[in-house]
Amino acid sequence: MTTGFAIRPARPEDAAAVAAVRRLVFPYKVMPADMVRRAITTHRPREQSVALVAERDGAVVGWGNAGLNIWTSTPGQGKATIFVHPDHRRAGIGSELSERLHRHLADAGAERTQSFIQPDSMGFAAERGYAEIRRMHFSGVQLAELPDRPATPDGVTLRSYDELDPRAAYTAEMLASVDEPTDTPTDSISYDEWIKDFWNDPAIDKHLSFAALVGDEVASFTISETDGDRMWSAFSGTVPAYRGRRLSKLVKAAALHRATAAGVAAAYTSNDDRNGPMLAVNDWLGYRRTATEIGAARTM
Fold first, then answer.
1. How far apart are CA 217 and CA 173, in angstroms?
2. What is the pLDDT of residues 255-269, one digit of tens each?
3. Is the pTM of this model over 0.85?
């Protein structure tokens, strides 16, 4: 066994240190300490989640978490995430985290595990049985460079999420996610689980998240997470019956313009290659690609 570091269960007080390492490894993502703390302390029993940290010289230098995907009707699906501070790689930390996480997933009954991996780590993943299944592109925009916000069409009302009936938001998010490009469908989230896992997520800024309503029905939406002066578009979508009306452009522009007024300097998002309509919206808003990650999977 490689020496010089220790792997242990993550504790709530590790949240700030883990968030700092994550921001260094993934400068194009947003995950504030509150979100990390929640990942450590809050999970469903059937998810069988585990969260680990790696320590070296008294400092947190790595993170690993894994669990079963309980948001899909496809059985036996696992998920895993590992990242290590760049200055502490090639010391066996990633290997040890990987071994522990995959052993945990096997014991939990996972038949297949998915992860997103930076391209320079794909060799490491391939040695552990992972193969590429998709690509996710990340892009960012400086909010001082936004185009003017589109006019709101007749019959459409803009509302921020803090003005919204959560049941209407849930209905729209489930309808919009049915054909979202993904290898495993997100099609098994009850309303009560959604309230706890999504609506009450501390990273979501409901004042900077917007919906376009037609009557009382949410037709399109964008959900924003914030971390200081950075924003992340966590999920944007349009209900199939309302597509083709440029409502995604409307809600995303509304969120970014309000974020600018709130002091946010840059926004980031991710898109699958197959999601042409949303890529076109982001291009119009001024997003430019900053990174690519490989979606990969392995059988257990």
1. 12
2. 999 999 999 999 999
3. yes
